[in-house]
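Weekly sync, protein design subgroup
Attendees: M.S., D.O., the rotation student, P.L. (late)

Item 1: inverse folding check
M.S. brought a backbone from last month's batch and wanted to see whether the design step gives back something sensible before we order anything. D.O. pointed out we never logged the input encoding, so this time it goes straight into the notes. Structure tokens as presented (692 positions):
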């Protein structure tokens, strides 16, 4: 056992910090800092001891009251120390907790940062100084406000508290109940089973899916309408019953009765006659799939990796090998992969020299600007992996809730299914895994858990009551409290704004509050349709990109969504020609004001990039309002707003001579002004290409 684990286990025997509400998947009221934005000073960088990044995720600097490597130490002793963090999603906060694990008392002010970037002071201490206690959990409570909290700034006067000052964690909650409490007793071991709740028992999917042969590795599409799985040594495999494993698929015939069509073999080139073939995951729109094995150009199969196949008019393409830096798998018989819905993370269960033991779950990320290449695998850490095999990872559409099978955590059988939540962006901080309980887990084999974006029905493999004693695929309905976090499934088509014909394009979607790109996907090559999944708590922007076109971006605010929903939204592309007008749907202002909101910056950054890439292009920016209020004031407001846009572009290196502006007030509506829903479309900023 390494020193890190010894130190933490010894500390944990004297004091346990209990985080309330973090074990319930959907009703997760507590959030801990997920991203570092700014810091006044620091002892070290990255995840090194005493670095600011130690503030991220749950409290872990135990025992409290002692200097810890796992907490931040400001480098200076002064009146203006601070740290600013962001959370994974915005909430209507009612409290902030700051864990001062050693030498507390230096905090002078705490500010909340809302989704518009504005600051709200919730705590002030004009007389900072040392406290008699060796540590403090500063709990600040306040009534819920109209704004949603996305970040926190903690300001300190460390000169007033002599010696080392340490902060371990910063959290927010949308409940008034105690967020963190101390329990001075020994923790229960990892083998203790805490059962989840389900709305039903296991239901066999029936003879259209299951056979007397082994049916395994189910993968449900995010929309819940297509089920892919593997069938072993079946006469209908491409190579007959000597073929070890082929991919089959079935489609949902009736959502009400939850019946499935007769499964069909996916066929070549994914299925080959002499090798075990399997789908690990499918994209949100079902147009691409990660398959196990490396498919070589000469037709041979290499088990050391995975490949990507895409669906076209002619069927699935020859799988393209995915190059994973420093990929190693010491277990020649077992490997699992899973591609996150966003396409931004590739999970794998492999046995590596740098693992904890047996198969471990690792994650890789796309190498920038190098298609089909992934970074060196990162171990998810000891909260997920054990000294025995941990495998079959499935990351829910919220990209935070991880389901996996483990042989090293005890429970009801040799391998049980657990779930855990990702607590920050490091991918190494996870909530304590929770056993899915005796309804799912049994003394028999239970694994390969998959769940649709709606989060209501889960599918898994079990040898209980299988057809003729084989392994079958079962469905079970999750109780709402144990479903993943809420997401919105967005579908639509990408169309030429003039001809309304479908266009093959790439879809990008981003967090408008941070500018971070969340995911990338492709449209259907036949009808231009797309599907993306957006976790709640964020305002998103999304757009299509295709050669020779400029995107009309759109946005969707799901910050307050508390139920799964589906939405249709067509995306339009404007030909890059003189005279064409492009709506800038993601330019935002405060009501009746002309100051740009920070959520406008991602769209403006793309316009700046276009102007730089095409230095001869000139544009005219037009501002429009609805017809409410004084027409003269509306005219002035529209002109002020487009002038502000021009000012921003000029400040970022675009020559003002290339930009003209005009405000039209409410004189050029594009929709009815009778209702707010349509009236909002008239409040817009556009630009027209005047020279190319």
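Designed sequence read out in the meeting:
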């Amino acid at each position: 056992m390494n020193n890190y684990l010894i130190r933490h286990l010894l500390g944990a025997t004297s004091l346990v910090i209990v985080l309330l509400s973090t074990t319930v998947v959907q009703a997760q009221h507590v959030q801990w800092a997920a991203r570092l934005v700014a810091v006044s000073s620091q002892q070290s960088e990255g995840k090194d001891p005493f670095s600011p990044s130690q503030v991220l995720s749950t409290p872990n600097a135990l025992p409290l009251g002692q200097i810890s490597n796992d907490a931040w130490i400001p480098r200076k002793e002064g009146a203006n120390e601070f740290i600013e963090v962001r959370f994974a999603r915005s909430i209507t906060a009612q409290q902030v907790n700051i864990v001062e694990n050693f030498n507390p008392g230096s905090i002078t002010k705490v500010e909340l940062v809302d989704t518009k970037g504005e600051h709200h002071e919730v705590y002030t201490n004009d007389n900072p100084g040392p406290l008699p206690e060796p540590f403090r959990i500063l709990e600040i409570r306040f009534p819920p406000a109209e704004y949603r909290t996305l970040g926190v700034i903690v300001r300190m006067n460390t000169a007033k508290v002599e010696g080392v000052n340490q902060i371990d964690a910063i959290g927010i909650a949308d409940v008034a109940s105690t967020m963190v409490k101390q329990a001075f007793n020994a923790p229960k071991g990892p083998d203790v089973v805490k059962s989840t709740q389900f709305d039903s028992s296991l239901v066999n999917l029936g003879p259209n899916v299951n056979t007397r042969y082994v049916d395994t590795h189910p993968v449900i599409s995010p929309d819940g309408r297509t089920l892919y799985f593997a069938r072993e040594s079946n006469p209908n495999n491409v190579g007959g019953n000597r073929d070890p494993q082929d991919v089959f698929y079935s489609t949902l015939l009736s959502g009400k009765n939850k019946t499935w069509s007769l499964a069909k073999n996916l066929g070549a080139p994914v299925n080959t006659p002499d090798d075990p073939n399997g789908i690990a995951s499918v994209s949100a729109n079902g147009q691409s799939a990660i398959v196990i094995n490396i498919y070589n150009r000469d037709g041979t199969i290499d088990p050391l990796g995975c490949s990507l196949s895409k669906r076209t008019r002619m069927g699935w393409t020859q799988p393209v090998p995915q190059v994973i830096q420093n990929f190693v798998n010491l277990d020649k018989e077992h490997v699992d992969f899973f591609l996150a819905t966003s396409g931004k993370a590739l999970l794998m269960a492999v046995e590596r020299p740098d693992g904890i033991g047996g198969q471990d779950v690792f994650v890789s990320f796309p190498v920038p600007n190098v298609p089909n290449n992934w970074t060196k695998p990162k171990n998810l850490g000891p909260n997920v992996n054990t000294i025995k095999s941990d495998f079959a990872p499935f990351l829910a559409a919220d990209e935070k809730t991880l389901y996996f099978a483990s042989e090293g955590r005890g429970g009801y059988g040799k391998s049980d299914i657990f779930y855990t939540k990702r607590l920050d962006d490091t991918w190494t901080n996870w909530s304590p895994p929770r056993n899915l309980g005796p309804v799912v887990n049994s003394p028999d084999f239970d694994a390969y858990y998959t769940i649709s974006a709606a989060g209501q029905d889960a599918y898994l493999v079990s040898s209980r009551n299988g057809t003729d004693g084989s392994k079958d695929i079962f469905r079970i309905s999750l109780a709402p409290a144990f479903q993943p976090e809420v997401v919105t499934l967005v579908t639509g088509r990408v169309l030429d704004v003039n001809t309304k014909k479908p266009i093959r394009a790439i879809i990008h979607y981003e967090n408008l509050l941070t500018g971070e790109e969340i995911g990338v996907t492709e449209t259907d090559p036949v009808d231009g349709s797309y599907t993306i999944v957006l976790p709640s708590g964020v305002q998103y922007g999304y757009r299509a990109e295709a050669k020779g076109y400029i995107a009309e971006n759109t946005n969707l605010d799901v910050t307050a969504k508390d139920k799964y929903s589906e939405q249709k939204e067509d995306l339009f592309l404007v030909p890059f020609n003189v005279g064409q007008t492009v709506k800038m749907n993601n330019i935002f202002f405060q009501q009746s004001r002309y100051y740009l909101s920070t959520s406008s910056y991602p769209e403006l950054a793309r316009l700046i990039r276009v102007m730089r890439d095409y230095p001869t292009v000139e544009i005219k920016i037009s501002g429009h309002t609805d017809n409410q209020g004084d027409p003269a004031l509306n005219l002035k407001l529209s002109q002020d707003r487009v002038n502000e846009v021009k000012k921003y572009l000029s400040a970022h290196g675009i020559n003002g001579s290339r930009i003209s502006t005009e405000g039209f007030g409410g004189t050029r509506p594009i929709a009815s002004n009778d209702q707010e829903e349509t009236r909002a479309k008239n409040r817009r900023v556009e630009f027209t290409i005047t020279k190319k």
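Discussion: Helices lie at 3-14, 601-613, 631-651, 676-679. The radius of gyration is 27 Å.
Action: P.L. to compare against the previous round before Friday.
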